């Protein structure tokens, strides 16, 4: 690794060319056209999750009228859309906003060091295409890398794994040449990936079995939103999209509140829907009855009931059991049954890597993530000029990203108007804290000790309510928790 002797300077460095980073760049071009910015992306292409994952059937389990950007209508008829359509939408956003020349691919951020004296970050970047290390000096870092580890998915330790003579695949690293035609496939898992793979693979495979330890709540939705398509036809793309977006935000929130306030009612409703979609006499309570309440973990959406259709046809099946060990020819279950397989897909989840694993220091002191508290869901206490983008777990990710980008731009405007060049949030050391995400998903629970904390009330709460965040993030920019500094402050004068 050779190190460049030159240091480029930008006003804002955006980390990640996925849905969050692209959105942030667009807001900067419209709200702060005079500010310079660069997007660095560790991979060789834009799109983030939607370019990385290549497994059969990959799609969003959020409707694209809320998962899309507020500023760019989703015009495709599919509301629950597949990855190629989402990628096309993201590439259109890049092209329409002139972002192509701002993106540096195969630029992986290694570390970022803040200097209060300079009021800037010095960012170390490895270029994976040339083997060179470069530096960028940035006034701000906007981290749009999400919270998944893009290098490695999560796979539990399975006894006897090495004995299996077939092929083992994790969806995060799906081989392009994987041939499953006529093969017996076992998909381990019960989340969004597993319920996507089952119908996507069933037509070509001999048989696909979804092996789950614990069931998940599954809800069928139409792939196309008839009301949305009608509104766009009558009112035009822009107005129809805006109205559909409001409708779907309200529907998402209503469903979540129903599940949280009346879990027994919600459980019965979901069970009734599932039973109506399954063959007569199907053991619904064995395979579709989670031990937790609805929305303690994310609900899985199946477009046009594709999972249930596949089960009715007999092309796939669900087994609820625990794994005793892998065998030469499949999986031995704790019940004593054995599932024969040619291919085993470990759809067992993802790993969390907050801010992409960047090594942060502030004036030479390492930043310990668990010792920070998130302010307004986007800044870390004690870390100046650093924004991170984490979306909703109980609604469309992008709903929150849009609000964060709006607030970020307003904060930049406030700094400029008052002669400041740096800002940081200060949390009361005596403030009680709790885990960042109140979510029961395994990938979250495994990572809680490595994540920042949240406080008991706004602005220190990691809100999962779009309506609450809209009031907070579109309200006053500054409050008593934010500390500001400018050149005159560092020279000994006070900025009024």
TrEMBL record:
Keyword Oxidoreductase: yes
Molecular-function GO terms, alphabetical: flavin adenine dinucleotide binding; N,N-dimethylaniline monooxygenase activity; NADP binding
Its EC number(s): 1.14.13.-
Cofactor: FAD
Top-level taxonomic group: Bacteria
Flavoprotein among keywords: yes
Gene3D superfamilies noted in UniProt: FAD/NAD(P)-binding domain
Enzyme's top EC category: oxidoreductase
Classification via PANTHER family: MONOOXYGENASE, PUTATIVE (AFU_ORTHOLOGUE AFUA_8G02570)-RELATED
Family: Belongs to the FAD-binding monooxygenase family.
Protein name: Baeyer-Villiger monooxygenase
